[in-house]
Amino acid sequence: MSVPLYQAKAEMFRTLGHPVRIRVLELLQDGPRPVRDLLDEIEVEASNLSQQLSVLRRAGFVTSYREGPLVMYALSTPDLAELLAIGRRILGAVLSDRDGLLDELRAHSQETSG
What is this structure's pTM? Predict the structure, then answer.
């Protein structure tokens, strides 16, 4: 029995719902990186990063391979970089709407108190 599309999408977003995983995907947008570079950029314990990379790998969001002594990670599809960019645009729009509402509320407060 197959999983409904909406359920698969929910699972995808649940997987993305961790700050370390998002940060890893952001760092991999510019190309493959070794684990040691990811550790330098993300201030977490090596075991925590390893766990999060494992979740991303199982979900199919990243791939890993050896390059000499280094374990390299890469985005499995450029669409993930596009998804992150769309997320930034949505977040920017939502936050700017909130700022606009806050400005409007402040202006209205000043009008009614003055």
Answer: 0.81
Domain 1-76 has CATH 1.10.10.10: yes
Q: Which of 52, 51, 54 is nearest to 19 (CA)?
A: 52
Which 3 state secondary structure label does DSSP give 92? Answer: helix
CA distances for 29 relative to 10, 47, 65, 83, 97, angstroms: 23, 23, 17, 11, 28
Beta strand 70-75 pairing with 33-34:
antiparallel
What confidence tier does 85 reach under pLDDT thresholds 50, 70, 90?
A: very high
Name which of 80, 35, 34 is nearest 61 in CA terms: 80
